[in-house]
Design brief:
Distance between the termini: 25 Å
Strand content: 15-25%
Helix content: 40-55%
Radius of gyration: 20 Å
Mean pLDDT: 97
Bound molecules: 5'-O-[(R)-(carboxyoxy)(hydroxy)phosphoryl]adenosine, zinc ion
Strand order of the largest sheet: 3-2-1-4-5
Shape: globular
Number of strands: 10
Structural class: alpha/beta
Low-confidence stretches: none
Largest sheet: 5 strands, mixed
Length: about 350
């Protein structure tokens, strides 16, 4: 079964043809990172306009790269929730129109499910159930228990910022361009992770996370290092830091964020004593320190990370997610009435 997956929930316009939920026949991603690096973050109206320009050429390229015509496509899948309203609208309306025009079944999918299903794309081994999924993206940080395909129970979540957002905010303090995560990771490699000690924020439920406190702890430490008070604006700090100081802050922050994530996952793994596999999902799962430390911390379980090129937003994971929904008995939706939902939890 060949599914065309379309993704436009944030700042990537992407489409991919995937066979049987696994084999990637094409994968086209047009990123708006260059546009938003200049602004230091995503501007929703600009993102929507860029999706509008890119979406049709991206879909056409996904089909031609896969050597497919419309008659080869069995279904269309699209991210319809959660994400930026204008961005979701472009992908979803395009998918609805294409489904009507070419008479294809339409499957609207949840963005976080798709991130999880990036772990089922091409690879020799597949995760097995029951499993824990750690979803770590720019908008979400959740621990999800899956008993079977298409069965999701959120057992831990962030009470404030997402971990990716925290990486992006700390990067801004250090004067690094958007998106912060990869840039923090890059400069952290030459820094000392032991130089600064940041606390693991306490949460009443030990499976929940809090990242706004960690971001503030970094901000206060940078202000202290620069010899200024807590009211000094964060935007003025980076020019007062040397490159080695920035590297030490990046390394100390990254190491704390990673150990905090893994500490929670370890508690979850012990709470649910039937876990077979642990899968990582979302943009932050590209992080090399997280990959390295996860294997050590969670050594007794089977650990899965998506190929780094599929950690971020892409159409292949959308197609794979829809494939497993279909196998679980989910029916296609009426293309005339599929709606977008900027916010929603995984169910
Ligand atoms: O999943 P994603 O591409 O988009 C959302 O669904 O939000 O995640 C984007 C987030 C950004 O916050 C970005 O800084 C972070 O993933 N990220 C990373 C790395 N690569 C991307 N964070 C840490 N280390 C990385 N290597
Ligand atoms: Zn995402």
């Amino acid at each position: 079964m060949k599914i065309l997956g379309i993704e436009s929930s944030c700042d990537e316009t992407a489409a991919s043809v995937v066979e049987d939920g696994e084999y990637i026949l094409s994968n086209v991603v047009v990123s708006q990172i260059d546009i938003f690096a200049a602004y230091g973050g995503v501007i929703p109206e600009v993102a929507a306009r860029s999706h509008l320009e890119a979406i049709i050429p991206v879909v056409e390229k996904a089909l031609s790269d896969a050597s497919c015509t419309w008659s080869d496509i069995d279904a269309i899948a699209v991210t319809h929730t959660p994400g930026l309203l204008g961005s979701l609208l472009i992908g979803t309306l395009t998918a609805r129109t294409l489904a009507i025009l070419h008479d294809k079944p339409l499957f609207p999918v949840h963005h976080l499910k798709s991130h999880i299903y990036a772990n089922w794309l091409e690879g020799n081994k597949k995760p097995e159930f029951p499993l824990l999924a750690l979803v770590v993206s720019g908008g979400h940080t959740q621990i999800i228990y899956m008993r079977a395909h298409n069965s999701f129970e959120i057992i831990g979540t962030t009470l404030d910022d997402a971990v990716g957002e925290c990486f992006d905010k700390v990067a801004k303090i250090l004067g690094l361009p958007y998106p912060g995560g990869p840039n923090i990771s890059r400069i952290a490699k030459s820094g000392n992770p032991e130089k600064y000690h940041f606390p693991h924020p306490h949460t009443e439920n030990p499976l929940n996370f809090s990242f706004s406190g960690l971001k503030t702890a970094v901000l206060r430490a940078v202000q202290k290092e620069c010899g200024v008070g807590p009211t000094f604006p964060s935007s003025g700090l980076s020019s007062m830091l040397t490159e080695p100081q920035k590297a030490d802050f990046a390394a100390s922050f990254e190491s704390t964020a990673v150990s905090y994530l893994l500490e929670k996952l370890k508690i979850a793994k012990n709470d649910k004593n039937d876990i077979d596999s642990i899968v990582f999902a979302g943009g932050v799962s590209a992080n090399s320190l997280l990959r390295e430390k996860a294997k050590i911390t969670l050594e007794d379980k089977k650990i899965f990370f998506p190929d780094p090129s599929f950690s971020g937003d892409n159409g292949a994971m959308v197609a794979s997610s829809a494939y497993y929904e279909i196998l679980s008995g989910v029916k296609s939706k009426d293309p005339y009435s599929v709606n977008i939902l900027p916010r929603s939890t995984i169910k």
